[in-house]
Amino acid sequence: MRLLCFHARRFRWKTCSTSLPGLPERDEEREVRDAVVAFVHAGSEDAADRAGVLRKAAKHLKWLARKGELDRVVLHSFTNLGSAGGDPDFAREWIAELAERLAGAGYAVETTPFGYQCEWDLAVGGDSLAKVWKEL
User: Fold this and answer.
1) Backbone phi, then psi, for 79, in 5-degree steps?
2) Distance CA 30, CA 12 (A)
3) Are 136 and 57 in contact (CB under 8 A)?
4) In sequence order, which residues have a C-beta less than 8 Å from that of residue 8 and are 6 or more positions away?
5) What is the pLDDT of residue 36?
6) How far apart are CA 21 and CA 43, in angstroms?
């Protein structure tokens, strides 16, 4: 599992097209302010330790949110953080589980539409913890 995380002053996304077969057209545009935005890459090896990777990812995102005094998290599936992605069904379910776990810990959680290409605008702070890479 790879996470590229940002302390976003602002994150806006808009669906453009589908990236998985069989999905309907979708027109969604949303904006979130003051949030940890996590670009998530699930690899094929992550299914073997699903619970462990989930626990580590939640712990990392909560730590990062606390450091930035943030109570919002956005999860964005981003398969471009590695040379090979894993099973899309696993990634979709895993991201939903992570969102549920973070919400259960009191965070306001949003996910970008899974299986859709999005345009996005991202305004990120300048301190060192505003841009964090984590491989689990």
Assistant:
1) -80, 5
2) 6
3) yes
4) 32, 33, 34, 35, 36, 37, 74, 122, 123, 124
5) 98
6) 20
| CB 2, CB 134: distance < 8 Å | yes
- For 74-112, how does the pLDDT look when each residue is reduced to its tens digit (9 = 90+)? 999 987 655 566 688 888 999 999 999 999 999 999 999
Amino acid letter, 130: A
70's tokens: 């943030």
Q: Would you state the CATH architecture of domain 2-22+32-124? A: 3-Layer(bba) Sandwich (3.50)
Q: Please list, in sequence order, all residues whose beta carbon lies within 8 angstroms of the beta carbon of residue 3, skipping any fewer than 6 positions away.
A: 38, 39, 40, 41, 57, 60, 61, 132, 133, 134, 135, 136
Q: What is the pLDDT of residues 10-68, one digit of tens each?
A: 999 999 988 888 888 889 999 999 999 999 988 888 888 999 999 999 999 999 999 99
Residue 52, phi then psi, degrees to nearest 5: -65, -45
Token pair 């259960």: residue: 104
Domain boundaries, the chain: 2-22+32-124
CB 38 within 8 A of CB 61: yes
